[in-house]
Design brief:
The chain is of the alpha+beta class. Helix content is 29%, strand content 28%. The strands form 2 sheets. It has a 5-stranded antiparallel beta sheet.
């Protein structure tokens, strides 16, 4: 009669080492899956934020109205489009009958201001709810629309003779008091590079 032999110490150590190796490999695989999931979630959130920002910007551009804006206590009105994107990182646009986005209030005639916060690298938006506000208190607080933005540029299409120009609506010998035929907005995103929106106006 032969008795059953148990594991030797060497075999036991080898088995424990194999189990430990399998456990470590499983943990690494799980950690990798979690990191991949977090990365995918972050990418999805960034893409959704970009889509919302571009939809809002495009809605404003498509709703451009040939209406002059009278700032509080101003003696002269501003043109429907005032482009200061090259100098100060912002432009202002008169709009009407803008399409209402989910979660947004009903929009009528407004003066929207898009500004690139160069220090904070954000794209901001503010609204005057009327074309002749009585005071600066009527201007809404700036709302953050998109983060990690490194630039904002606007070009306006004046026609086949002049082509694309910058600084539309600024005072000068060639002050432009009406809307251009088209507008091109370039948003410089740190994540996606330059994003161009082109809208033709009636």
């Amino acid at each position: 009669m032969t008795g059953e032999r148990g594991l030797t110490l060497l075999e036991l150590v080898a088995a424990m080492a194999i189990f430990a190796l399998v456990a470590v490999m499983g943990l690494q695989t799980l950690s990798g899956m979690l990191r991949a999931r977090d990365s995918t979630d972050a990418a999805a959130e960034n893409a959704a934020a970009l889509a919302r920002a571009l939809a809002l910007l495009r809605a404003d551009l498509k709703s451009a109205a040939d209406l002059r804006f009278w700032p509080p206590e101003a003696f002269e009105p501003e043109p429907p489009l005032l482009d200061r994107s090259a100098e100060e990182g912002w432009f202002a646009l008169s709009t009407e009958a803008r399409a209402v986005l989910p979660g947004a209030q009903t929009a009528g005639t407004e003066r929207v201001i898009w500004r690139h916060d160069r220090a904070g690298e954000r794209l901001l938006r503010a609204v005057w709810p009327v074309m002749r506000p009585a005071s600066d208190a009527a201007l809404s607080a700036e709302t953050g629309v998109l983060d990690r933005v490194s630039g904002l540029r606007l070009r306006a299409y004046a026609g086949p003779e002049e082509g694309w120009v910058a600084g539309w609506g600024q005072p000068g010998e060639e002050a432009r008091l009406r809307l251009p035929r088209a507008m091109e907005i370039t948003v410089e995103s740190e994540l996606y590079g330059p994003i161009v929106i082109l809208v033709a106006l009636p």
